[in-house]
Write a structure and sequence with these properties.
It is built from 11 helices and 8 strands. It is α+β, with helices and mostly antiparallel strands.
Length: about 290
């Protein structure tokens, strides 16, 4: 992490209520270059058709021009290319592929925003975070169930999470920490840009385009407020016994000492999620450990 980003992290950690009003200037040519080098060389091209190898030729001049467009506010996000990948249940998952330069700018923005949000995210969150992974989440589930007085587990699975995030509410939640208009406009461009599918431009009213570099971070921010902070600050203090949350991306388990606590939370979960446009799959049930 650069000295500038380390300073932002320190400020974010020292004051959890601080809004960062001027951070767009950290999207420097150097930050763009780091983001470019962080891309997968063999990743599929977006609507621009540009590959990593092609862009690498003359990359310094390309990034200089890209930075100039960011500074002059003439940068425009390109429509996403829609592809489908098979899921384990036989269905297909839609993936939205950005153009190469959009990937670069989003990567630099993620590096910048993570300096802030990694100070906010709770220990219960494991998905798409530095030095954390699915196995860590599974290990924590095992530790909680085996070592704490837990008897009931509630599994949460959100239906089409990336496609149902309410953009206006997402921007309101992001705005609690980020007040820089330039950064907010960039995020707005990325989440509202349309998708090209079979030669047609499709524009949806909800969602954050799974497949974009920025999407995992935005997904984490949304559930940080919708679930993690709510469960920690409002739910747990009202329960009779112990309760724990372990979440990996949009999959989570809530662990309870007492059945009455689990049932109490189960009753309000759907209402809580519906407030933010999210739907829980109802087949996920309360299980006894």
């Amino acid at each position: 992490m650069s000295t500038e980003l380390r300073r932002i992290s320190e400020l974010a950690k020292a004051n959890r209520e601080q809004r960062f009003l001027s951070i767009a200037h950290h999207l420097t040519p150097e930050a763009l270059y780091r983001a470019f080098r962080g891309l997968r060389r063999q990743a599929s091209a977006g609507m621009d058709g540009l590959t990593y190898g092609e862009y690498e030729k003359g990359v310094e001049e390309r990034l200089k021009a890209l930075h100039g467009r960011l500074v002059s506010k003439t940068y425009r996000a390109q429509p996403l290319r829609r592809v489908y990948i098979p899921k384990e249940n036989g269905k297909e998952r839609p993936i939205s592929i950005p153009s190469l330069e959009d990937k670069i700018v989003q990567g630099a923005a993620v590096e910048l925003l993570e300096a802030i949000y990694e100070q906010d995210f709770l220990p219960c969150s494991y998905g798409f975070r530095p030095a954390r992974g699915a196995q860590d989440a599974l290990d924590e589930v095992g530790r909680v169930i085996c070592r704490r007085p837990i008897s009931y587990v509630l599994e949460l699975d959100i239906t089409s999470y990336f496609d149902t995030v309410v953009r206006e509410q997402l921007m309101e939640l992001v705005g609690r920490r980020v007040g820089d208009g330039s950064i907010l406009r960039l995020i707005g461009k990325w989440i509202h840009v349309g998708v090209i599918e079979e030669g047609r431009l499709l524009v949806s009213k909800t969602g954050i385009g799974q497949g974009q570099v920025i999407s995992p971070l935005l997904a984490k921010v949304y559930l940080h407020y919708v679930l993690d902070r709510w469960f920690e600050d409002e739910v747990k203090p009202r329960l009779r016994g112990e309760a724990h949350e372990i979440r990996y991306a949009d999959d989570a388990v809530l662990c309870f000492q007492y059945r009455e606590d689990a049932e109490k939370v189960l009753k309000v979960l759907h209402q809580r999620f519906a407030k933010y446009g999210l739907i829980l799959q109802r087949e996920k049930a309360l299980a006894t450990t």
